[in-house]
Amino acid sequence: MRALVYHEAGKSSWTTVPDPGVRDPGDAVVRVDVTTICGTDLHILKGDVPEVEPGTVLGHEAVGEVVETGPEVRTVRAGDRVLVSCISACGRCRYCREAAYGQCRGGGGWVLGHTIDGTQAEFVRVPFADMSLHPLPGAVRSEDAVLLSDIHPTAYEVGVLKGAVGPGDTVVVVGAGPIGLAAIVAARLFSPERVIVVDPAAGRLRAAREVGADVVADPAEEPERLIEDVTGGMGADVALEAVGIPESFELCTRVVRPGGRVANIGVHGKPVVLHLEKLWPRNVTITTGLVDTFSTPRLLRMLAAGRLTASPLVTHAFGLDRMEEAYGVFSDPGNTGALKVVIRRE
C-alpha cells in the first residue's frame, strides 16, 4: 500500500510500505476513505516529537471501512463504516476505567502515527478496536465525521469542559486555527454571553465569525484593552489557548479575570514563563490536557442531529496520492488560507 512515512526531521515521503494485518486479537484493519492532517503532524515533521521513529506512517485521524478484525473484536465487523479515534484505549487499566483514555497504560493512548503506524495511508491497523472505532450513521458525511477523530473532542474536552464554560460567560479564544474554531463551536453549546477571538490572520478571523465568534481582534489591536472594555474591566471568565506558543499562553493569563480559568489546548514545543507572582493572588485556575475522546459518541450524535458545525472548518480537499501537496498547503496557511484539509480515497 501507499503511505506517508516519516524519515527524520524535515523529511517524509509518500511511498510503498507493507499492508497492515491483524497482530493482536483485538485489532481491526480499516481501509482509509478519508483522513486529514493535524498540527501535531507538523510538530513531528519538525522533529519536536522524538518518540516518533523513522519509518513510522503518520496520521491519527480517519474514517473508513473495516476490512478485517481479530477474534476478540465484538462491536464492529468487516464492511462497517467507522470513525477512527485519535486515541486508542485498552479499556482495562485504571485510566481507561476512569475514561481517561489518553493516559492509557495498557498499550493505548496516543499511539497512531506516534508509536505505531498511523492513518495517512491506504489501510491502517487499529488496536483495541472495540474501544477505538465508532460505527457511523449513514446520514453523517465522512468529510464531516473525520473532524471528530481529534479536533472536536479536543476542543470540547480540553478546552470547554476543563475551562468550565457556562451560561453567561465571556470566553476568549486565542488562536483561530482548526482547534480554535472547534473551540468556538464547542463553547457556543454552553450559551456564553460572548466569544471573543484573537488571531493575526484576517481570513481566520472571518472564519471565526462564521462559526460563532461575537468579537474578533488582531493581536496588534490591543486585545487586552478591548477585552477589558467589553467586560467592564472584569476580564474573561474563561481564556482558551489554542496556538501552543509562549505569547498566546501569556496573553491568556493576562486577559482572564480574578477567579477565572485558563484552559491550555495548544501543543507547546517551548517553555512558557508562568507568572505565579501575579496569578496566585487572583485565584486563577490553569488546566492542561491530552484529549481522552470520551465525548466522541456524544459529539457524533450531535453531528448526526445537525447540532454540531463541522463543514466550515474544511477549506481544501485532495486525493490520497496528493498527500505531499496537501501537507504543503496545510503547512502554509498564511498564503493558502488553509484551515482543515481532507484527503480522501478517489
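the 2nd protein, sequnce then structure:
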Amino acid sequence: MRQALLGIVSKSTSPLKAIMALALAMTFVCADVASSLAARQAAIVVDAKTGKVLYSADANGRRYPASLTKMMTLYLTFEAMAKGKIGKNSPVVFSAHASAEAPTKLGVKPGGSVTVETAILSIVTKSANDSATALGEMLGGDEATFARMMTAKARQLGMNGTVFRNANGLPDPGQFTTARDMATLGIALREHFPQYYGYFSQRSFLYGRQRINGHNRLLGRIKGVDGIKTGYTRASGFNLVSSVSDGNRRLVAVVMGGTSGGSRDNQMASLINTYLPRASTRGGGDLVAKADSNNPIKALAKVLLPKHDAPTPDEKPVAVAEDDTSVADDAAVAQGDSEDEDTAQAEAPKLVAPAKKVKTVIVAAPKVATAQVVAAYAEPTPAVDPVNTASVPSGWAIQVASSPKQSEAQAFLDKTTKQAPKVLADAAGFTVAFDKDGVTYYRARFGGFGSKDAAWKACTALKKKKIECYAVQQ
C-alpha cells in the first residue's frame, strides 16, 4: 500500500496535484479500513415470537460485553423482586468498593444507599457502574460470588458462550459473551419479567434535583423500540441490544463492536427496518424457559464455573475514571474505558487485528437451532481456548501442566499462582481442551505475555522455583 501511494505521488507533476492525489488515495485507504472493521463486527436479529434467526454475522464470536453485562445483573434483580426477596423500595447500600467504581456512576458515597428502583433506573439510563456493583453485592454477598451466580444463570438460560466476572461490565479479560447469547438474554428479560420490562424504555429519570438522561438514542427515534441496553469500552467497541415491537411482530437484535455510537445505531436501525417486516405475526409462548432456583449456591454447584477462561490482551484493560458529563455528539469524547458512551473515545481501529490460527482443538459452545433460541438447562461447556476476535487478541502463553481432568489442570493453575504470585501477577490462567487417541485432555496455561521473550523470561523464573513449563504462541 505504501509503495502504491508513493507511485501516485511520484507521477504528479506539481506539489498541489501530489497533495490532492495523496488525499484521494488516503480516502480509499480509510474506506478499506472501515470495511475491514465492519467485517469484524458481530450482529444477530431474532424473531422474538418464533425464535427464528433472521440475520446473523459472527453471532457466536467471542466478544467483551461491556455494559451489556448489566442486563444479567438486572435479570437477577428482577428475579429477586419477583420472588419477594427484595422490593423496589428496599435500600441498596454502597460499599467502599461499589463507590470506587469508575464512571459513569451515581456517585453515592460509601455507606450511602438508594432504593432498588433508583439503582435500576440509574443502570438502564446512565449505565451506573457503582449501582450495578452495589446490587450485585446486595444479592450475592460480594461481587465475585454474584458474578458466579450470573454465569450460573447464563448457563441455565442456555447462554453457553458467556462468562461473567463482575456486575457492571468494566474491563476484565476473563469476561466475555456472544451476540447470540445477548439476544437470548434480551428475549428472556421480556418473557420472564414483563412486569419489570418497562424499566428498559425509561429515557430519563430524576435523581434528587438532577435529570439523568439515557444513552439509548434509538428510544423515540425508531418506532416500536422499547429498550434494552447500550455498552462501550475501548476493548469491546460500541454494543447495543434492542427490542422492537410493531403490531404483531417482535424482534430482538444485537450489534457488537461498532466503531462509534452513531454508526452502531445506524446499523441497528437498518437491521430493524430490514427484518421487522419479515418477522412472523404468529407464534408465542416462552422461547427461553425459566431456570428458577431458590438456592443460588445449589445452582452454582450444577454449573462448571472456571476461575480463569481466557488469556489477557497484550495490554491488560484498566478502568479509567472520567468526567461523566454528557455531550451531544459522539465525536466530542474523551479517552478511557468509561462505560459512558458520551464520554468515550472510539478507538476501534487500534483494537482490530487479524486473527491468528488456533492450533489446539477448540471445544465450542453448541450452536442454537435456527427455529429455536435456546433449550432450558443446557449442559455447560468446559473452559476453552479463546476464539480469537477483535476483542480478545492472541499472544504468547506458558504451559505448566496437562491432565485428563479439567479440575486437576485448574488446581495446578491455582497452585502455581500461589507459588509464584509476582511472576504471574499480570498473567491469567486458563485451560485448553485437546484430543489425543480419542481422549480429551486439558492443558494448564498462563496467557497475557506480549512477546516470546516475555513468556520465556516468566518460564525461566518459574523453573527457578522448580516449576516446569515452556512457552507457546496462541
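The longest strand covers residues 439-449. The two ends are 28 Å apart (CA to CA).
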